[in-house]
Design a protein that fits this description.
By secondary structure, the chain is mainly β. The chain is built from 1 helix and 7 strands.
């Protein structure tokens, strides 16, 4: 059997932070576990202007978090080993808009490193999503 190279979409990105964590999403008044795996802060290599959070589930490598960093992104410490944040997760088709997520790390030192990596690169992403000029207007029929 021949080995086939797998493209992950991370080939043109540099990983500036990586750690094992558990991802939770706040839904219906409570935290729901989304998966365990390796969370990464990736920066696009050629222009270094775009940064994103990427997380794949351990075992099957299913993408469970894919979110661009934005300049107004706020990270809040949760207990000693966790951090919460709001973002648009494009890894799921379930709902659009901002959702609240939490990452729980094995050790509290990862929280500081994660927060520093996000803070260093969040200002480099586009903060305002603009509608393309050639898109139809709401009033056009």
């Amino acid at each position: 059997m021949q080995e086939v190279p797998v493209e992950t979409g991370e080939e043109n990105e540099e990983t500036v932070f990586t750690a094992d964590a558990v991802l939770f999403e706040y839904l219906d008044g409570g935290w729901k576990e989304r998966g365990k795996g390796e969370v990464k802060v990736n920066v696009s290599s050629p222009e270094r202007e775009k940064a994103r959070l990427a997380m794949r589930a351990r075992g099957n490598y299913r993408l469970i978090l894919n979110a661009s960093l934005y300049s107004d992104m706020k990270l809040t410490n949760m207990d000693k080993r966790g951090v919460t944040f709001a973002c648009m997760n494009s890894a799921t088709d379930e709902k659009k808009g901002l959702s609240t997520f939490a990452l729980k790390f094995k050790d509290g030192s990862f929280v500081e490193s994660f927060t520093a990596a996000v803070a260093a690169h969040k200002g480099k992403a586009a903060s305002i999503l603009k509608t393309p000029e050639n898109s139809p207007k709401a009033s056009d029929d």
